[in-house]
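Chain A, query sequence.
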Amino acid sequence: MNKLLKYNNASKTLRVAEKVGQLFMPAAFVNDSEEEIQRLEDLIQQYAIGGLCFFHSRASAATNYEGRKKVIFNADSFQTLQKLIRRYQSGSKYPLLIAIDAEWGLAMRIENTPQYPYAITLGAIQHNDNLIFEVGKNIAKDCKSAGIHWNLAPCVDINNNPNNPVIGYRSFGENKIQVANKALAFVKGTQSEGILTSIKHFPGHGDTETDSHLGLPLIEKSKRELIQNELYPFQKLIDEGVDSVMVGHLSVPSLANGETISSSISKKIIKGLLRKEMGFDGVVISDALNMHAVSKNYPTKGELEWLAFDAGNDILCFAEHISEGIEKILKNASEQQIQESFERIWKLKKKAITTKLKGSIELINPQELNRILAENSLTLLKGNETEITTFRNTNFCTLTIKRSSLESDHKNLLLESLKEMKSEVAAEKEILILLTPPQVKPTNNFGLLQEEIDFINELIQTKNVVLYLFGNPYVLNHLNIDDALAVIIAYQSFVEFQDVATKHFLGKIEAKGKLPITIN
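Chain A, predicted structure.
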């Protein structure tokens, strides 16, 4: 904090090259080697880097994860995170702005830390957005304990495409008003603890079928359609004074005068639409610049960093070519252009870093809030309480379908297990299915084998089935649930959600939630 107060007149004291350094937010990894840590320290000191965005490890970064690189898990990741933040801060001439993606808690990046439900689960909660405020508040407290200033959340993408490979469960749903209201509650809860937020992924990543970590999604809607729907939550939160907006890597020709250029490097979309038309005067941060949607198209080091800055991004997240990017910006940008972005960043840094970050040395225990969230999100999609009560009084059998995504690699063993399962239930008439899909993303049928899907569908069509789903509700698009006696969505596999589902089945509580998306 003293560092920042010392440089209150920073716009007059920093050299132009240092001001450009403040635009850069490279990735920092909790599980880096000492050599990699020292390399980042050198960058911070040499180029006056403005901030860091923390990730778990290089292998788990999204652009690498699809390559199935081995991810090493570290039980002491949180303590390592705290130590690294202190170390990087101590070596920096100016205070670093520390950011992380913590949409559902630090657990999004750091193991053995509190995890809260995905946004799609919170989207099912009716008439109680104060609960979402509490989620934002709790996550912010954990950020403070770590030394983090900025939670790059929430997603305000409207998820209206069941095949979306990357947003889906990260969206509050498909209704623009519900998405805006729930995102606002999350933002206000976060801000109540002095932690910054960033709404993403502008101008809306919901209606896509391409993962922008791997390729450039194309959205072919008209500008009028986008203003009426996708842009609505952004405008509402901008009007509420949100801290920052993250621009996604999306090709939206109708917003870029027909150009198929990525929104993250489009002046028409950032300087034109976001700044002028929508009136946003805060900090604009790019989505990670290492993502293949843009990075693979600009092999010349520093070119992408310059294009992103010139388009209107103030902070260049996950920039990989620091020295070359600084050199190009210094060469091509006007001093006024640099100064305007610098002042926006420094204003945000002063707001964030004057917040006392130490807080509690203990992370928040999420169990009680998660239990309440489970009670308020549980959704009875098909059937009614009377039918479940009648079913409960039969001689039903319970079939639990649950395994990790890693087990998917052993197909022969899974097929043998499935064969045994079929034999066990062959003579049964009433079956309670407890389904937990291996993964939350829709790729490869959420990790389910086609044989498993066929087996569940056969049971639904030939038996009296009550199905409890502990996972992404879009899984139901692969199931023929019309013939099911009852379908209940619990959304998460946390113990608290399992307990609430059990109470519901036993008739002790009623389902209060409503599905926030459409199942075909």
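Residues 417 and 423 are 10 Å apart (CA to CA). The radius of gyration is 24 Å.
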